[in-house]
Specification:
It is a single chain. This protein is an all-alpha fold and 65 residues long. The protein has one domain. Helix content is 49%, strand content 0%. It contains two helices and no strands. The radius of gyration is 19 Å and the shape is elongated. It starts with a helix and ends in a 5-residue tail after the last helix.
């Protein structure tokens, strides 16, 4: 689900007004148009990119004061 904020707001409103009686009824609420994201990157490549991302984050700390 790409719009989780909108979905969460709709669920909260629906629960409040009685569209659903409990959270258990929402188990399959988002199956229409379902897209599964399956990682295709290898573990070593992922780890290398994550390490570079962590380094970039560390370098950016303290820029805004």
């Amino acid at each position: 689900m790409l719009e989780t904020t909108a979905l969460s707001a709709a669920i909260a409103a629906g629960l409040r007004i009685g569209v659903w009686k409990c959270v258990d009824e929402l188990f399959n609420v988002n199956e229409t148009g379902l897209t599964r994201f399956v990682p295709e990157m290898s573990s070593p490549e992922r780890d290398k990119k994550f390490t570079r991302w962590e380094k970039a984050v560390k370098m950016c700390r303290g820029w805004s004061s």
